[in-house]
Amino acid sequence: MDNYAGRLAAVTAARGAFCVGLDPHPALLAAWGLADDPEGLEYFCATAIDALGERAAAFKPQSAFFERHGSAGIAVLERVLARIRAVLRNRELLAQISARESRLSLA
Fold it and tell me: Residue 105 above 80 pLDDT?
């Protein structure tokens, strides 16, 4: 199950099809009291990822909202993608540990 389709099928079977769109547009950042700058983008995305990481099957950042801030925005997008990968890896690791513990307690 190393291909994308297999991983997606497994995660949606376990968590449902909840995909979080990360679309930090100027009005949304303003509603959160954040500046429309790379720091505001990163804070918004980090908060959403951390809050929803245990529930979401996937995250989909909209690159255009990052690209409009030039190279600093692209650097934020790279950090956001790394954070998503870390949250999803951690979640998978915790699920594997939990499954092992369940098997051991049944033995």
Answer: no
